[in-house]
């Protein structure tokens, strides 16, 4: 598993190494981007926010049933947490995050696409089948990436993210759209658990095949997903255009003026 062993440095050579790893493997797990104390605070905020808004919906994919093998599972989520608590807005523009985001995109300009908070409940937290993010919001130049902030520890038993290293090099794959885009025939032995600690952030490309297992532990798994892009990369569809704050510049500037489009 490719990781950065210490909290990220802003030194250009350090960020270049990170970007090289990301280019080669399709992902990089950055250790300790947030302190344990910060992660603990964000975990508490996340659980309080989801409980307070109490949307009551379950975003578990229909396609997850094959992974769950008939087991009843559940999932809690929230779009656009930054519109309900300023702490998430500050995190979006925190240089510790944006420096790495800019490095892996290889551009000084970083634009928000959307965010999602996920809480996998203990004992039955829903899995995600293998998939790429690409079919959900394709872009012309494919300079779109994800960052998953871990607000608590995520061992394999908690249903951590699993990634197929190097899978991004094959580009777009044909997905089964039934029950949400997924890759039913992808070899599961190619998927490597990305076990993480509170404060770690996992960056990966939108071509990288990934999945996650069921949370069978006795503790919830709490993460925040941030999808971001190069603002010079035009979207090919208008999917996800309803995401609040889409087009917000997190670092640098938008050379196109195409604010909030798709």
Give me some keywords for this one:
alpha+beta; 12 strands; 262 residues; eight-stranded mixed beta sheet; Jelly Rolls
Description:
The chain has 262 residues and is an alpha+beta fold. The chain has helices at residues 12-25, 36-53, 65-68, 86-92, 95-105, and strands at 3-4, 27-30, 76-79, 110-120, 128-131, 144-150, 161-163, 192-193, 201-205, 210-212, 221-229, 249-251. Helix 1 (12-25) packs across helix 5.
Outline of this structure?
With 262 residues, the protein is α+β, with helices and mostly antiparallel strands. It has 5 helices and 12 strands. The protein has a single domain, classed as Jelly Rolls (Sandwich).
Q: How is the topology of this model organized?
A:
Elements (H helix, E strand, L loop, with lengths): L2 E2 L7 H14 L1 E4 L5 H18 L11 H4 L7 E4 L6 H7 L2 H11 L4 E11 L7 E4 L12 E7 L10 E3 L28 E2 L7 E5 L4 E3 L8 E9 L19 E3 L11
Helix pairs in contact: 1-5
GO molecular function, one term: iron ion binding
InterPro entries: Phytyl_CoA_dOase-like
Keywords: Dioxygenase, Oxidoreductase
